[in-house]
UniProtKB/TrEMBL annotation, chain A:
Protein name: Winged helix-turn-helix domain-containing protein
Superkingdom, taxonomy of origin: Bacteria
Organism: Paludibacter jiangxiensis
UniProtKB/TrEMBL annotation, chain B:
Required co-factors: FAD
UniProt KW Iron keyword: yes
InterPro entries in the record: 4Fe4S_Fe-S-bd (IPR017896), 4Fe4S_Fe_S_CS (IPR017900), FAD/NAD-bd_sf (IPR036188), HdrA-like (IPR039650)
Keywords: 4Fe-4S, FAD, Flavoprotein, Iron, Iron-sulfur, Metal-binding, Oxidoreductase
Protein name per the record: Heterodisulfide reductase subunit A
UniProt GO molecular function: 4 iron, 4 sulfur cluster binding; metal ion binding; oxidoreductase activity
Pfam families, A to Z: FAD_oxidored (PF12831), Fer4_9 (PF13187)
Gene3D superfamilies: 3.30.70.3270, FAD/NAD(P)-binding domain
Highest taxon in the source lineage: Bacteria
Record organism: Paludibacter jiangxiensis
Boundaries of every 4Fe-4S ferredoxin-type domain copy: 107-135, 155-184
Family: Belongs to the HdrA family.
Amino acid sequence: MEVKQKTIDIIKQTRKAAPEAFEARKLYLKMRKAIAEALKDEAKTIPQVAEATNIPIGEATYYMMAMLKFGELSVNGIDDMDEYYFYQLTKQ
Amino acid sequence: METQQETCINESLYDVLVIGAGIAGEESALKLADMGYRVLLVEKEPSIGGKMILLSKVFPTLDCAACITTPKVSETARHPNITILTLTEVEEIVRDNKNRFSVTLKKKPRYVVEKDCTGCQECEKACPAIVNDQFQFNLTARKAVYIPFTIANPRVALIDINNCLLCGACEKACPSNCIDFSQTEEQLKITAKSVIVSTGFKLFDPIQIERYGFGRYKNVITSMQMERQLAPTRPFNNILRPSDGKVPDKIAYIFCTGSRDHTVGNPICSQVCCMYSTKQAQLLMGALPMADVSLYYINIRAFGKGFDEFYEQAKDMGAKYVKGKIASITEKENGNLILRYEDIATGKVTEKEHDLVVLSVGILANPGITRVFKKERLETDALNYIRQTDLLQSPAITSIEGVFAAGTATAPMDIPDTIMSAGAAATETSSYLVRLS
């Protein structure tokens, strides 16, 4: 197959990435690391992860749902009250 | 109809320009294309299919929305007489001296070569940038390079350049070498003999009704957010409340949020809210059998074929319809919500606690397209919908000869009415093109 020249350098000549995009990335990495650490040994519910990481529960929900979408988390059952799902890491 | 010879001479000459590739635009385009007309279908979003492609099921049959939409979307995409331009907006339409419309289009760069992308999503896996997913109504995140949703058509990635880190990871990861950051915005000029406006509607933004707390309280969501949660291509693994991922147990719907409401400038009925809320209530009771679903309404408007039976069915399933407009919502520390309302049946001001509130948002006009017509005025009615100059005899006819309107561009309506409206617009257009030739 013909090797095409990478075009990313072309656009870099005319525009820069937005600082907000880097901030969002940094925040996601920080959240992901904390969530992964909390789930290292056992599956947990969102409130349990929020408690273990001190991440506000709303943010923990958003980032855990993003990780679920990106295939980094999977569902592992539901609690006895049928209220909260348990989530686990898909890979260590 | 245009002769084949002329079509071959001028590749940018179309019989019909259809603006908006939702269900109305697709239906009009397909009907005209089947008659042999050459159609250009222009869509500003990265996928065709409009809002219907994002729905879970449809009322009153509870048919899977995607199962109805996707074949139509595919048929539109593959029809030899239809050319589709996505990520494209109409900038200007002027009638020329041959009684045709000279159209200027602005095509935004996708930064992906459409014909080469296989939709493998390797670029998505490599992309490090995280952004709110607008196609999941911000309930979850997406990457900066992404396929809008699972059943998008074309199923081709695009790059959200404003949130891109310009790291080039997607380009390195792409197995078909189709990422192309050298793409720029293009201006296209085409000529069309007629135009169909099928630009659809906007959803009411409930942030305008402060007492409902949308935007402040995480567990107050819109009906479109619930619709996504109920869809097979949903943002979460199940139906969860956004504040803490709890499976909701007591769910409330507030009807007429931003419709039949003079205070927000939309005094008319949106025609679909009662029924889509009833549909969602039935789906919720199916998905969460123990859930208690209460629906707070002013009046139930179940006017269509099978609608009243559908409403009765929801009540039989256990949906609680409460007549009373919500005065205020307050949030408890655990995220639960207290609804304060006057129960019309008892005449008492009552408070009730729910753990999730769904606002049944209304429909608003989307009149931006009127600005692109130069020299002639595409008139709108008092509520900014496209004015139908002869509503009873020819509802597709607008104030400009050769320009027709389809679907919710003219008024709020449900899917069957949209399909009928689109059929009427196609028929009027065909008749106009015959007269023109």
